[in-house]
Amino acid sequence: MKLSVKPLHALFVAEVSGIDLSAALDNSVLEGIVRASDRYAVLVFRNQHLDDAQQIAFSAHFGPLETSIKQLRPDHRFRLDPQVADISNLDAQGKLLPCADRNRMYGLGDRLWHTDSSFKAIPAKYSLLSARAIPAKGGETQFTDLRAAYDALPEDVRTQIEDLVAEHSILYSRSTIGFTDFSPEERAGLAPVPQKLVRVHPGSQRKTLYLASHAMGIRGMPIPEARLLLTDLMEHATRSQFVYTHRWQLGDLVMWDDRCTMHRARPYDMAQVRDMHRTTVSDVASTLDQLVFPTPLARSKLRGIPKGAK
What pLDDT digit, counting tens, does each position of 278-289 carry? Predict the structure, then answer.
């Protein structure tokens, strides 16, 4: 197989073709995907009609997979494997969720700009989202390039935020839309975690903002001041010049680098089925513990050189 990479946006995002993600992939192909991701951050693979086992197998080449935080809720009934996040409007029996259903209300938080798992001590490295059923209209996913957003900040702002550490919490982000239905087990297991506000992307060696709606404050800064700064940075990072809107087709698989992008879902008619399956590759360490300018050997480990390739 030979990869073909076509840019889709002036700053980031590319379509990758010439590859069947359900097939056995050799190191050269997998390393080519990592290189393309380091350059473009968001990769679009068309006509990849994968089942969950195939998606898990492909994703696992890039590192250990996360499991759903819904395991923390004793009464949650899974429709999918716990390694596959259920990004849908369906219940455990595959029927449309009622309007007031708890899972439907929780899922509305995906329409906030966010970075997957920044609320975990070890956050996400890559996310891979597969389109299994899509509505006739709407339901797009928007992405923003946090490296380009950092580059466009005034020098005095870059200096101001260089060493700041934010606190991230999914309980906080969901509360901003009025969702507070978390069990005691979830509240205990989802305490706020610290993450650097500026990090170095290990593959490209570019500095990047690390933002999400989960960011609720900044260490050492009064809450009102911190939230105003975070709001200003979010508004800057989501300006139209940094944003790409992906309009889904059946069989699309989109892989993005959570270390240097944010994303959000867009509205759609929830009387229609939207069934998306996401696998999430865990990063190697907390942002506080990662190297700033790693050696080539350390960089290869941070990038997640594919494992188990044939």
Answer: 999 999 999 999
User: Which residues partner with 166 through β-bridges?
Assistant: 195, 218
In the sheet that 14-17 helps form, which strands lie side by side, from edge to edge?
4-7, 14-17, 42-45, 253-257, 124-133, 275-282, 85-88
Question: To the nearest 10°, the Cα dihedral for 26, 31, 36, 37?
Answer: 110
Cβ neighbors of 29 (< 8 A, separation 6 or more) are 1, 3, 19
CA distances from 11 to 3, 25, 157, 201, 228 (A): 20, 28, 22, 16, 27
Q: What DSSP character marks residue 290? A: S
Query: Can you give the C-alpha Rg of the chain in angstroms?
Result: 19
- Distance between CA 230 and CA 34 in Å, rounded? 30
Distance (Å, whole) CA 132 – CA 75: 26
Q: Which of 236, 283, 259 is nearest to 12 (CA)?
A: 259
45, 80 in Cβ contact below 8 A? no
DSSP 59: H
β partners of residue 72:
none
Question: What residues in the chain have per-residue pLDDT under 50?
Answer: 293-310
Q: Would you state the structure tokens that stand for residue 310, as one six-digit string?
A: 């044939």
**Alpha-carbon distance 48 to 22, whole Å?**
8
Note the pTM of the prediction, 2 decimals. Answer: 0.92
User: 145, 240 in Cβ contact below 8 A?
Assistant: no
Question: Phi-psi region for residue 292, left (φ > 0), alpha (ψ -120 to 50) or beta?
Answer: alpha
The DSSP code for 242 is G
